[in-house]
Amino acid sequence: MPLVAGIDCGTGFTKAVIIASEPHATARIVGRGRAKSGVDSNLAASNALRSALQHACIAHEDLAYVATTGFGRYGVSFRDIQITEITSAARGAHFLCPETKTILDIGSQTTRAVASDHGKVKAFKSNDKCAAGSGMFITRAAKYLEVPLEQVGELSLHATRPQPISSICAVLAESEIINHVSLGVSVEDILRGIHDSLAERAGMLLKRVGMGDSVTFIGGVAQQAGIVRALQEKLKVKVTVPDGCEYACALGASLLGLHRYSAVHSVTKVGTVA
Predict the structure, then answer these.
(1) What does pTM read for this prediction?
(2) CA torsion through residues 223, 133, 248, 80, sign
(3) How far apart are the C-alpha atoms of 109 and 239, rounded to whole Å?
(4) How far apart are CA 180 and CA 207, in angstroms?
(5) CB 5 within 8 A of CB 242
(6) pLDDT, tens digit (0-9, with 9 covering 90-100), for 207-234
(7) pLDDT interval class at 8 (50, 70, 90)
(8) Distance in angstroms between the alpha carbons of the first and the last residue of the chain
(9) What average pLDDT score do residues 181-185 get?
(10) Residue 274 has pLDDT above 60, yes or no
């Protein structure tokens, strides 16, 4: 029973997932963990993996293979293979939602739209040119508004007159927020305006890859109920947020790592991840 770890080295957080596989059975998640990212990708990956190993009650020596993905994937010294974020996102989302064909991944630095077929990438578009289109903008806005990040999604749901954020530049968008605050606009209305802005930009990417009648939403931002509602209202499609959405890319890396390990070591392949 090979144990394989997938590590998503993001700019905000580093996530790790450990899966176990047995012949003729679906791979299963046995451990998950995360750590704050920083300038040292190797350290962040080690911390996230240590947390996942503790969750799984296994030792590092028990791992057969380690796959990395994300911004800092090349900085992990103990990796066996590195995989692109797009490929990992498609495979992880497919495992969590087997019927998915369109994937939205909003991370700290980048927003990605992916069209997939049974976990394989058909087309993708990404926006990493400005923080105003990513999760980092929400983090910075929450800090300025003195709102705990974990409360942002819920507060957005209580908006009564959402105030749009029209600037595509993060600096100018922050100026808009400051102006809204000076005019007495409520925190709830400002946050909903931010979510609407992100949803609109995400929608443009999704349409460019050929959005279907449903979207699987992954990444840390997907945990915010306010942006999920904003997406559904703007896109007019069903938006599904799978359990463990923030670990989807790490999961995808582990599944692809298992596939590679199985091919190299001639282990009986698992139908779900082949």
Answers:
(1) 0.90
(2) negative
(3) 21
(4) 30
(5) no
(6) 999 998 899 999 999 999 999 999 999 9
(7) very high
(8) 16
(9) 91
(10) no
Residue 234's identity, in one-letter code, is K
Q: Which two tokens stand for residue 53?
A: 């190993």
What token pair was written down for 36? Answer: 């704050």
Least confident of 79-88, 125-134, 154-163: 125-134
242 token code pair: 């799978």
Parallel, antiparallel, or unpaired: how do β-strands 3-9 and 120-127 relate?
unpaired
Alpha-carbon distances of 239 from 103, 184, 215, 225, 236, rounded to whole Å: 10, 32, 5, 11, 9
Residue in the block written with tokens 């080295």: 9
Q: Domains, the chain, ranges and CATH? A: 3-92+247-265 (3.30.420.40), 99-241 (3.30.420.40)
Phi and psi of 268, rounded to 5°? -55, 125
